[in-house]
Amino acid sequence: MKRVITITVLFQLLVSIAAIAQLNQTWQGKKCAVVITYDDAINEHLDNAVPLLDSLGLKATFYVTAFSTSVQTRMNEWKKLAPSGHELGNHTLFHPCIGGKGREWVQPEYDLNNYSVQRMVDETKMTNLFLQSLDGKTKRTFAFTCGDMKIADSSFIGGMKNDFVAARAVRNEMRKINEIDLYNIDCYMVNNHTAEQMIDWVKKAVQTNSLLVILFHGVGGGNGLDVSIPAHQKLLNYIKQNEKDIWVAPMVEVAEHVKKWQEKN
Questions:
Q1: pLDDT of residue 15
Q2: Residue ranges of the alpha helices (H) in 27-81?
Q3: Which residues contact 163 (CB under 8 A, 6 or more apart)?
Q4: Burial of 196 by CB count in 10 Å (0-12 exposed, 13-18 middle, 19+ buried)?
Q5: Please, what is the average pLDDT of the chain?
Q6: What is the structure's pLDDT at 17?
Q7: FRET label pair with 25: which of 19, 97, 137, 205, CA 20 to 30 Å apart?
Q8: pTM of the shown model
Q9: pLDDT tens per residue, range 175-186
Q10: Residue 232 belongs to what H/E stretch?
Q11: For residues 24 and 26, what is the distance between their CA atoms, to the nearest angstrom?
């Protein structure tokens, strides 16, 4: 009887060790991964987000729309982000979205209803070339503009997979590493949320061993989808204070890790 109990205890111990080992491999020894992203390349990112990120040593992904006013007027400052460890992600050349009711701000020439799949692919390729001229990198991730993933009834990501390591969608969800679709990565979009609400997302990611992608637009202004400067600062401070449990890295780095993990498992 003692021998049976000993074998059972040993088996349970081995299972526990294996589970811990797998968890350590999942997120670089941490309990979860957090990717901090900023969309549209606006001045407030350079003025309000980058200084705080750099002061804390946190690395983020900036999804750049190449034709944005900020890129046109402050290109040298955008160029400095890559040497600091941040990712310049592809957010298209002109930020096209599906126009129509509720989206009257979409200009006809940049309405996805007037695009072809080939035009979308060509414009993202051109944006990749532009970004490469800034950072010298060939590996990159993409963010769907307005979360739109189709032109008419046709998905356009299929023709772009060779150009990107991953693509970020827009849904308020998070996934465990085995559930992640690298070309449809979930994220939580900030829309005037409080620091406490955003910190709760981080706590959930830690508890569920998930990937949390946070999407910012305005930071203290610059976009109606905004976050206040104090709330933004409180969230980033919380993430920094809990780095023992949180792997923080740009999207391209996390996506490459997810791909390797999924191929092995």
A1: 43
A2: 43-44, 50-56, 69-73, 75-79
A3: 124, 125, 128, 140, 142
A4: exposed
A5: 93
A6: 43
A7: 137
A8: 0.91
A9: 999 999 999 999
A10: helix 229-241
A11: 6
| 163 neighbors 124 (Cβ within 8 angstroms) | yes
C-alpha 66/C-alpha 43 separation (Å) is 13
CB atoms within 10 A of CB 68: 18
Domain map of the chain by residue range?
A: 28-264
With beta carbons less than 8 A apart as the criterion, state whether 219 and 36 touch.
Answer: no
The candidate with the shortest Cα–Cα distance to 168, out of 139, 147, 137, 151, is 147
Q: What is the pLDDT of residues 207-245, one digit of tens each?
A: 999 999 999 999 999 999 999 999 999 999 999 999 999
* Average pLDDT of the residues in 186-190: 98
Rounded distance between C-alpha atoms, residue 29 and residue 68, angstroms = 38
How many other C-beta atoms can be found within 10 angstroms of the C-beta atom of residue 234? 16
- The CATH code that applies to domain 28-264 is 3.20.20.370
**Per-residue pLDDT at 34 exceeds 80:** yes
∠ Cα 258 85 90 (to 5°): 65
Whether 21 shows a pLDDT value over 50: the answer reads no
End-to-end CA distance of the chain: 37
For the chain, where are the E strands, in sequence order?
Answer: 32-39, 61-64, 87-90, 141-143, 150-151, 154-155, 166-172, 175-176, 185-189, 210-216, 246-248
- Rounded Cα distance between 248 and 236, Å, is 11
| Closest by CA position to 159, among listed 169, 149, 172 | 149
